[in-house]
Design goal:
Layout lengths: L1 H18 L3 E5 L2 E3 L4 E7 L3 E4 L2 E4 L5 E11 L5 E6 L2 E2 L11 E3 L4 E2 L3 E5 L5 E11 L2 E15 L3 H4 L3 E3 L10 E8 L7 E6 L4 E6 L4 E7 L6 E9 L2 E10 L3
Parallel strand pairs: 3-13
Antiparallel strand pairs: 1-2, 1-5, 4-11, 5-10, 6-9, 6-12, 7-8, 7-11, 12-13, 14-15, 15-18, 16-17, 16-19, 19-20
Amino acid sequence: MKKLYTFIIIAFLTGFVLQAQNLTLSKSAVAVLNGDTIIADGDATVLIQSHVDVKNNGAANLSIKCRRLVIDSVTGSTNSVCWGGQCWPIGISVTPNPTVVNAGTTSSEFSGDYWANTHAGITIIRYTFYDMHATNDSICFIAKYRAWGVGIDELAPQYTISDVYPNPANKSATLNYTVSAVDKSTHIVVSNLLGKEVLSLPVTETEGRIRIETESLSNGLYFYSFILQNKVVFTKKFVVNHN
Protein backbone atom coordinates (compact mmCIF):
# COMPACT_ATOMS: atom_id res chain seq x y z
CA MET A 1 0.00 0.00 0.00
CA LYS A 2 2.86 2.37 0.85
CA LYS A 3 4.40 1.73 -2.57
CA LEU A 4 1.05 2.50 -4.19
CA TYR A 5 0.81 5.85 -2.38
CA THR A 6 4.38 6.64 -3.41
CA PHE A 7 3.59 5.85 -7.02
CA ILE A 8 0.48 8.06 -6.96
CA ILE A 9 2.43 10.98 -5.48
CA ILE A 10 5.22 10.65 -8.04
CA ALA A 11 2.72 10.41 -10.89
CA PHE A 12 0.91 13.50 -9.62
CA LEU A 13 4.12 15.53 -9.33
CA THR A 14 5.32 14.36 -12.73
CA GLY A 15 2.01 15.37 -14.29
CA PHE A 16 2.21 18.76 -12.62
CA VAL A 17 5.73 19.40 -13.96
CA LEU A 18 4.77 18.35 -17.46
CA GLN A 19 1.67 20.50 -17.31
CA ALA A 20 3.71 23.54 -16.30
CA GLN A 21 6.01 23.40 -19.30
CA ASN A 22 3.69 24.78 -21.97
CA LEU A 23 4.66 28.46 -21.71
CA THR A 24 8.04 30.04 -22.40
CA LEU A 25 9.16 33.66 -22.68
CA SER A 26 11.70 35.37 -24.92
CA LYS A 27 12.86 38.85 -25.84
CA SER A 28 14.29 39.52 -29.30
CA ALA A 29 14.71 35.75 -29.77
CA VAL A 30 16.67 35.44 -26.49
CA ALA A 31 15.14 33.13 -23.87
CA VAL A 32 13.80 34.73 -20.71
CA LEU A 33 13.75 32.11 -17.98
CA ASN A 34 11.06 31.84 -15.33
CA GLY A 35 11.67 34.62 -12.79
CA ASP A 36 14.32 36.44 -14.84
CA THR A 37 14.67 40.22 -14.51
CA ILE A 38 14.51 42.57 -17.49
CA ILE A 39 15.79 46.13 -17.20
CA ALA A 40 13.81 48.99 -18.76
CA ASP A 41 15.46 52.43 -18.61
CA GLY A 42 14.22 55.88 -19.50
CA ASP A 43 13.88 59.50 -18.57
CA ALA A 44 11.39 60.21 -15.78
CA THR A 45 9.34 62.38 -18.14
CA VAL A 46 8.52 59.74 -20.77
CA LEU A 47 6.78 56.37 -21.07
CA ILE A 48 9.07 53.40 -20.26
CA GLN A 49 8.04 49.97 -21.56
CA SER A 50 8.99 46.34 -21.12
CA HIS A 51 8.24 43.70 -23.74
CA VAL A 52 8.39 39.90 -23.94
CA ASP A 53 7.12 37.30 -26.39
CA VAL A 54 4.96 34.49 -24.99
CA LYS A 55 5.10 31.08 -26.69
CA ASN A 56 2.71 28.16 -26.34
CA ASN A 57 4.80 25.00 -26.65
CA GLY A 58 1.84 22.70 -26.04
CA ALA A 59 -0.28 20.69 -28.42
CA ALA A 60 -3.50 22.60 -27.69
CA ASN A 61 -4.51 26.24 -27.97
CA LEU A 62 -4.29 28.15 -24.68
CA SER A 63 -6.25 31.12 -23.34
CA ILE A 64 -3.57 33.05 -21.49
CA LYS A 65 -4.11 35.83 -18.96
CA CYS A 66 -1.54 38.17 -17.44
CA ARG A 67 -1.31 39.02 -13.74
CA ARG A 68 0.63 42.11 -12.62
CA LEU A 69 2.12 42.35 -9.13
CA VAL A 70 3.86 45.55 -8.03
CA ILE A 71 6.73 44.52 -5.76
CA ASP A 72 8.15 47.97 -5.13
CA SER A 73 7.20 51.30 -6.68
CA VAL A 74 8.25 54.93 -6.71
CA THR A 75 5.73 57.22 -5.04
CA GLY A 76 3.82 59.16 -7.67
CA SER A 77 4.50 56.72 -10.51
CA THR A 78 1.81 54.73 -12.34
CA ASN A 79 1.85 51.55 -14.44
CA SER A 80 -0.45 49.38 -16.49
CA VAL A 81 -0.39 46.28 -18.64
CA CYS A 82 -1.32 45.66 -22.29
CA TRP A 83 -2.59 42.13 -22.96
CA GLY A 84 -5.77 40.44 -24.10
CA GLY A 85 -6.27 42.78 -27.02
CA GLN A 86 -6.05 46.11 -25.23
CA CYS A 87 -4.18 48.27 -22.72
CA TRP A 88 -5.97 48.10 -19.39
CA PRO A 89 -6.51 50.89 -16.84
CA ILE A 90 -3.93 51.23 -14.07
CA GLY A 91 -6.31 49.67 -11.54
CA ILE A 92 -6.49 46.34 -13.41
CA SER A 93 -3.98 43.81 -12.03
CA VAL A 94 -5.36 40.70 -13.79
CA THR A 95 -6.33 41.15 -17.41
CA PRO A 96 -10.08 40.46 -17.82
CA ASN A 97 -9.62 39.12 -21.35
CA PRO A 98 -7.17 36.37 -22.29
CA THR A 99 -5.01 36.19 -25.38
CA VAL A 100 -5.54 32.95 -27.26
CA VAL A 101 -2.14 31.61 -28.30
CA ASN A 102 -2.41 28.70 -30.70
CA ALA A 103 -0.35 25.57 -30.20
CA GLY A 104 3.27 26.09 -31.24
CA THR A 105 2.86 29.84 -31.87
CA THR A 106 4.10 33.02 -30.18
CA SER A 107 2.30 36.17 -29.11
CA SER A 108 4.18 39.50 -29.18
CA GLU A 109 1.33 41.68 -27.93
CA PHE A 110 2.48 42.11 -24.31
CA SER A 111 3.61 45.49 -23.07
CA GLY A 112 4.29 46.63 -19.53
CA ASP A 113 3.80 50.42 -19.46
CA TYR A 114 5.39 52.59 -16.77
CA TRP A 115 5.07 56.31 -16.18
CA ALA A 116 7.45 57.81 -13.62
CA ASN A 117 5.57 61.12 -13.84
CA THR A 118 8.88 63.00 -13.29
CA HIS A 119 9.67 60.94 -10.14
CA ALA A 120 13.13 59.34 -10.39
CA GLY A 121 13.79 55.90 -8.97
CA ILE A 122 13.32 52.18 -9.50
CA THR A 123 10.01 50.35 -9.68
CA ILE A 124 9.88 46.54 -9.73
CA ILE A 125 6.90 44.66 -11.14
CA ARG A 126 6.33 40.95 -11.70
CA TYR A 127 4.21 39.82 -14.67
CA THR A 128 2.85 36.27 -14.65
CA PHE A 129 1.30 34.61 -17.71
CA TYR A 130 -0.97 31.63 -17.11
CA ASP A 131 -3.54 29.40 -18.80
CA MET A 132 -6.92 30.55 -17.45
CA HIS A 133 -8.14 26.94 -17.54
CA ALA A 134 -5.07 25.53 -15.76
CA THR A 135 -3.59 28.24 -13.55
CA ASN A 136 -0.60 26.09 -12.55
CA ASP A 137 0.59 26.31 -16.16
CA SER A 138 2.36 29.64 -15.73
CA ILE A 139 5.59 31.56 -16.20
CA CYS A 140 6.71 34.97 -15.02
CA PHE A 141 9.37 37.63 -15.38
CA ILE A 142 10.30 40.69 -13.33
CA ALA A 143 10.59 44.13 -14.91
CA LYS A 144 12.89 46.65 -13.25
CA TYR A 145 11.93 50.12 -14.45
CA ARG A 146 14.71 52.64 -13.87
CA ALA A 147 13.60 56.24 -14.34
CA TRP A 148 16.26 58.89 -14.33
CA GLY A 149 15.40 62.25 -12.81
CA VAL A 150 16.75 64.48 -15.53
CA GLY A 151 14.27 66.27 -17.75
CA ILE A 152 14.59 66.57 -21.51
CA ASP A 153 14.69 70.37 -21.38
CA GLU A 154 17.50 70.31 -18.84
CA LEU A 155 19.63 67.89 -20.85
CA ALA A 156 18.96 69.12 -24.40
CA PRO A 157 21.80 71.69 -24.50
CA GLN A 158 24.26 69.33 -22.80
CA TYR A 159 24.59 66.41 -25.20
CA THR A 160 23.91 64.98 -28.62
CA ILE A 161 24.27 61.22 -28.99
CA SER A 162 23.58 59.20 -32.12
CA ASP A 163 22.15 55.72 -32.41
CA VAL A 164 24.75 52.99 -32.83
CA TYR A 165 25.54 51.78 -36.31
CA PRO A 166 25.44 49.24 -37.80
CA ASN A 167 22.55 47.70 -35.94
CA PRO A 168 22.57 44.69 -35.82
CA ALA A 169 26.32 44.68 -35.18
CA ASN A 170 28.77 41.93 -36.00
CA LYS A 171 32.33 42.83 -34.93
CA SER A 172 31.68 46.38 -33.72
CA ALA A 173 29.18 49.23 -33.47
CA THR A 174 29.86 52.95 -33.47
CA LEU A 175 28.14 56.03 -32.06
CA ASN A 176 28.88 59.74 -32.43
CA TYR A 177 28.48 62.15 -29.55
CA THR A 178 28.90 65.75 -28.41
CA VAL A 179 28.69 66.82 -24.75
CA SER A 180 29.19 70.18 -23.09
CA ALA A 181 31.69 68.80 -20.54
CA VAL A 182 33.21 65.53 -19.35
CA ASP A 183 34.45 64.37 -15.95
CA LYS A 184 35.64 61.12 -14.39
CA SER A 185 32.08 59.79 -14.33
CA THR A 186 31.51 60.17 -18.09
CA HIS A 187 31.41 56.79 -19.79
CA ILE A 188 29.30 54.37 -21.81
CA VAL A 189 27.97 51.17 -20.28
CA VAL A 190 26.83 48.18 -22.33
CA SER A 191 24.55 45.72 -20.53
CA ASN A 192 22.82 42.53 -21.56
CA LEU A 193 19.13 41.72 -21.47
CA LEU A 194 19.25 40.92 -17.75
CA GLY A 195 20.91 44.21 -16.88
CA LYS A 196 24.41 42.79 -16.33
CA GLU A 197 27.21 45.13 -17.40
CA VAL A 198 29.36 43.58 -20.12
CA LEU A 199 31.39 46.60 -21.29
CA SER A 200 32.39 49.98 -19.87
CA LEU A 201 33.97 52.58 -22.15
CA PRO A 202 35.46 55.84 -20.83
CA VAL A 203 34.60 59.12 -22.54
CA THR A 204 37.43 61.64 -22.25
CA GLU A 205 36.65 64.19 -24.98
CA THR A 206 33.66 66.50 -25.40
CA GLU A 207 33.16 65.38 -28.99
CA GLY A 208 34.03 62.26 -30.87
CA ARG A 209 33.19 58.76 -31.97
CA ILE A 210 33.03 55.68 -29.73
CA ARG A 211 33.59 52.20 -31.08
CA ILE A 212 31.89 49.37 -29.18
CA GLU A 213 33.70 46.08 -29.77
CA THR A 214 31.06 43.37 -30.08
CA GLU A 215 33.05 40.48 -31.50
CA SER A 216 33.34 38.79 -28.09
CA LEU A 217 29.65 39.26 -27.23
CA SER A 218 27.11 36.52 -27.81
CA ASN A 219 24.25 37.02 -30.24
CA GLY A 220 21.32 38.82 -28.67
CA LEU A 221 19.85 42.09 -27.45
CA TYR A 222 21.98 44.64 -25.56
CA PHE A 223 21.54 48.14 -24.13
CA TYR A 224 24.02 51.00 -24.24
CA SER A 225 23.78 53.84 -21.74
CA PHE A 226 25.62 57.17 -21.77
CA ILE A 227 26.61 58.29 -18.26
CA LEU A 228 27.03 62.05 -17.86
CA GLN A 229 27.56 63.81 -14.52
CA ASN A 230 26.87 60.51 -12.72
CA LYS A 231 23.46 60.20 -14.40
CA VAL A 232 22.23 57.95 -17.19
CA VAL A 233 21.11 60.45 -19.81
CA PHE A 234 20.62 58.17 -22.79
CA THR A 235 19.79 54.46 -23.13
CA LYS A 236 18.95 52.57 -26.29
CA LYS A 237 19.09 49.00 -27.47
CA PHE A 238 21.01 47.28 -30.21
CA VAL A 239 21.41 43.74 -31.46
CA VAL A 240 24.57 41.66 -31.83
CA ASN A 241 24.34 39.14 -34.66
CA HIS A 242 27.42 37.22 -35.84
CA ASN A 243 25.53 35.20 -38.47
